[in-house]
Amino acid sequence: MADTIKGEYYYGMGRRKTAVARVRLFPNGDGSITVNGKPAQNYFGLRDTHLATIAAPLRALDLNNTYTMTVRVVGGGTTGQAGAIRHALARALVRQNAEFKAALRKAGYLTRDPRMKERKKPGLKRARKAPQYTKR
């Protein structure tokens, strides 16, 4: 579907955990969001929190239903992908209009979330879980 939309768009790339999202933001749109060729409602299923996460930068700027957005996202799980899309959308909005930067920065949407999965340590079952202690 991304190929069928013609015209000028604004690009943004965002990351969260191991997910990487690339957003194309088309002005004068109908508010539709397409993720990997599917409508966002179908892609994220019944998780309304993910849809709210994605649209958060638009809500912060009162720009609902003014842009059409196509997204390519790879890696990670659904929560990480939603966070990556939010980051990419915020960057695309700043590229479109630099005046949005202060509001998006204040809301924390332009800052890349540095949290990653902690590595497994030797002698432990997971990153911090130790084997059960037995006294006898």
Notes on the protein architecture:
It holds the Pfam family Ribosomal_S9. The protein has 136 residues and is α+β, with helices and mostly antiparallel strands. The chain has a single domain, classed as Ribosomal Protein S5, domain 2. Helices cover 32% and strands 21% of the residues. It contains 4 helices and 5 strands; from the N terminus they run ββββααβαα. The chain has helices at 40-44, 48-60, 78-96, 101-107; strands at 10-16, 19-27, 33-35, 38-39, 67-74. The protein has a 5-stranded mixed sheet with strand order 1-2-5-3-4. A hairpin with a 2-residue loop joins β3 and β4 (38-39).
In short:
InterPro entries: Ribosomal_Su5_D2-typ_SF, Ribosomal_uS9, Ribosomal_uS9_bac/plastid, Ribosomal_uS9_CS, Ribsml_uS5_D2-typ_fold_subgr. By secondary structure, the protein is an alpha+beta fold.
Which spans of ≥5 residues are poorly predicted at pLDDT below 50?
none
Structural class: alpha+beta
The main β sheet shows up as: 5 strands, mixed
Number of helices: 4
Q: Mean pLDDT, as a whole number?
A: 91
CATH topology: Ribosomal Protein S5, domain 2
Percent in strands: 15-25%
First and last CA, distance: 64 Å
Order of helices and strands: EEEEHHEHH
* Name of the level-1 CATH class: Alpha Beta
Helical amount: 25-40%
Instruction: Please tally the β strands and state the result.
Output: 5
Alpha-carbon Rg, integer: 18 Å
Physical arrangement of strands within the biggest beta sheet: 1-2-5-3-4
CATH architecture: 2-Layer Sandwich
Number of domains: 1
Q: How does the overall form come out from the CA principal axes?
A: elongated
Region (Disordered): 111-136
Family: Belongs to the universal ribosomal protein uS9 family.
Organism: Reticulibacter mediterranei
GO cellular component, one term: cytosolic small ribosomal subunit
